[in-house]
Design a protein that fits this description.
This protein has three helices and no strands. By secondary structure, the protein is mainly alpha-helical.
Length: 223
């Protein structure tokens, strides 16, 4: 793949990181690489524009406007709980009194319903809360189990990486030792060859001298 970077480091096997100058050299490489960065004015320009009002409701908008205008908060209206009597001009009006009585009965029924809800909550609320707590405990246990599984997977991956890197490091060391041995043998062979060439040259020179000496003797005896 284009642009693929092959990392040849074996952190579980490599040594020498604590030697003097190694850390400084690594920091200088990082600093040199950071100089080649081309920062943009807006590094988030590829993202869509954020919508800060996406989750605002009408109530929230009105409340924000009130806070921005520094207006006081509206008090809770208790009008629905009031039982007003007919006005002074309708004190003798039966229909007005009938409306007041209907209103009082509605308010009474509403309060009775609230009391009933409170009684039901007192009887069943604790059980519902216990069930809710049980569900929360189950969710927490499932999350903890999932976390333990992830940690176990991470540990297995690290152990596998360590095993693979240690095995690869030992293999590299064997190959390096073999390479050093072969280079040493080649050097010894080259030295032996040089010595043999010198010896052969010396022998040839001696043979040449002997031939010249013999030739000189022949010429001497001929004359």
């Amino acid at each position: 793949m284009a642009g693929e970077v092959v990392v040849d480091a074996l952190p579980y096997f490599d040594r020498g990181y604590d030697e003097p100058g190694v850390r400084e050299a690594a920091l200088s490489l990082v600093e040199e690489e950071t100089r080649r960065y081309r920062p943009t004015k807006n590094y988030l320009e590829y993202l869509p524009a954020p919508s800060y009002n996406a989750f605002e409701t009408e109530i929230m908008k009105n409340e924000f406007e009130r806070m921005q205008a520094r207006l006081p908060m509206e008090m809770l209206s208790m009008k629905r709980y009031e039982l007003p009597q007919p006005s002074a001009g309708k004190m003798t009006d039966i229909s007005a009194w009938t409306e007041c009585v209907d209103n009082s009965q509605a308010q009474l029924e509403h309060q009775a319903l609230r009391i009933l809800n409170l009684e039901l909550m007192a009887d069943n609320g604790s059980n519902a809360w216990k069930q809710y707590n049980t569900i929360l405990v189950q969710m927490m246990e499932n999350a903890q189990k999932h976390l333990q599984d992830l940690r176990k997977q991470i540990q297995e991956i690290n152990w596998r990486r360590k095993s693979e890197q240690t095995e690869a490091g030992n293999k590299l060391k064997e190959l390096e030792d073999s390479w050093v041995g072969l280079v040493s043998k080649n050097y010894e062979i080259e030295r032996a060859c040089v010595e043999l060439e010198k010896e052969v040259t010396s022998i040839e020179q001696k043979k040449a001298k002997v031939k010249l000496h013999v030739l000189g003797l022949k010429i001497f005896f001929l004359f």
